[in-house]
Amino acid sequence: MRLCRFDNDRLGFVEGDAVRDVTAALDILPRHAYPLPRHDPLIANLTALRPRIESLLDSAPRRPLAGVRLLSPVANPGKILAAPVNYRKHLEEARGDPGIHHQKQVAEIQKIGLFLKATSSLVGPAEGVALRHLERRNDHEIELAAVIGKSGRDVPRARAFEHIAAYCIGLDMTVRGPEERSLRKSVDSFTVLGPWLVTADAIGDPSALDLRLAVNGEVRQQANTRDLILGIAELIEFATSFYTVHPGDVLLTGTPEGVGPVQPGDRLVADIQGIGSMEVAVRAA
Ligand code: MN
Predict the structure, then answer these.
(1) pLDDT by residue (tens digit) across 41-54?
(2) What's the first-to-final CA gap in the chain, in angstroms?
(3) Would you put residue 253 in left (φ > 0), alpha (ψ -120 to 50) or beta?
(4) What is the pLDDT of residues 187-201, one digit of tens each?
(5) What distance in angstroms lies between residue 91's CA and the mean position of ligand 1's atoms?
(6) How far away, in angstroms, is 162 Cα from ligand 1 center?
(7) Euclidean distance between CA atoms 105 and 111, whole angstroms
(8) From the CA of 219, how far away is ligand 1's center (Å)?
(9) How far is the CA of 255 from the centre of ligand 1 (A)?
C-alpha cells in the first residue's frame, strides 16, 4: 500500500498516477490530550487503518497525483535517526574531498555511530529545500528512509524488520563546515521525506534497491542499498542499543557516493526502486 499526505493534511491512497482521498479513515485515530505521545499516531495505528482505507476506496474521490501538494508522509516523527558515511565509496569520497571533510577525520560508522536530525527540519517534496547559508557548500544526499512501526529497545538484528512499518525516499540535505553533523543537517527544510510511504509488505527486499538522484537532469548519485556498510537490520540493532524507537521514528540509512552542491533554482529528482520518484525544488530562504 502506498500512502501520501497531501494538500491540507489529507490522507491519500496512491494508485498509479492518481491519488484517492481516504482522509475519512483518520476518524479512527485516538484523540490525544496533553501531554502528547512520543509517537506518530497514524503510523502507530497503521494496522487498524489499512482495512478502513480499503473499505473507503470505492467511494474515495480520485485526483491526479500531479495536481496535489505532497507533504512529508510522516507528520510527527518523535526523532529522525541518521547513519553517517554508510556506503564504502562515499567514505572514500568524503576522506578525499576537503570540501566535505573540513579537516575532520572521517571515521567509519562502526566507530561514530548514528546522529539525530531535528524534527523541525522535516518537509515534504512540495515544500522544497530553502538554503540559508549561501556562502557555504550545501549538498544533496539521497537515502532510503525506513519508518519505525513498533516500539523497541535492544532489538536484535534478526527481529529488526518486525519494527519497520514502511519506507520512503529521504533527502539528508547538508551544509558543509566544521560544526557537528546534527547542527549542519538540521537547517529548516533539510530533511525531505516523500513522495509517499510504501508499506513494508509491498517493498520487496529493501537491501537490494536501486537509488538515483539527479540535479537539473544530470545524474549525480546512483547506487544500490546492497552496498550499505551497516544494513538496515544492523542499524536498528545499533540504534536501539542506545535508545527506544517509537512508531513514526524515521531512520535515514546513509547516502552513497556522488554527493555534491546545490544552488537556488536547482531541481532535484530522487528515485528509489519500489518506491517511486520525487521532485524537489531548491530556493534561497
Ligand atoms: Mn546522510
Answers:
(1) 999 999 999 999 99
(2) 35
(3) alpha
(4) 999 999 999 999 999
(5) 11
(6) 24
(7) 12
(8) 18
(9) 5
Beta bridge partners of 191: 122, 172
Residues 242 and 105 in one domain: yes
Please give the helix or strand (H or E) that residue 232 lies within, else none.
Answer: helix 232-240
Ligand 1 mean position to 217 CA, how many Å?
Answer: 21
The boundaries of the domain holding residue 215 are: 80-284
Q: How far is the CA of 76 from the centre of ligand 1 (A)?
A: 20
The total number of structural domains that make up the chain: 2
| Span 75-103, pLDDT tens digits | 999 999 999 999 999 999 999 999 988 88
- My answer on whether 98 and 231 are in the same domain is yes
The answer to whether residues 167 and 209 belong to one domain is yes
Q: Which pLDDT does position 195 carry in this prediction? A: 98
Q: Has this prediction a pTM greater than 0.85?
A: yes
Q: Who surrounds ion ligand 1 at CB < 5 A? A: 141, 172, 255
pLDDT computed for residue 107 by the predictor? 87
Tell me the C-alpha distance between 65 and 237, whole Å: 36
Residue 104 pLDDT > 90, yes or no? no
pLDDT of 62 strictly over 90: yes
Any domain includes 251: yes
Residue 9 and residue 13: Cα distance in Å, rounded?
13
Closest CA to 175 of 142, 140, 130, 138: 138
CA of 85 to the centre of ligand 1 (A): 7
CA of 143 to the centre of ligand 1 (A): 7
Kindly report the average pLDDT of the chain as a whole number. 97
Q: Compute the distance from residue 104 Cα to the ligand 1 centre, in Å.
A: 16
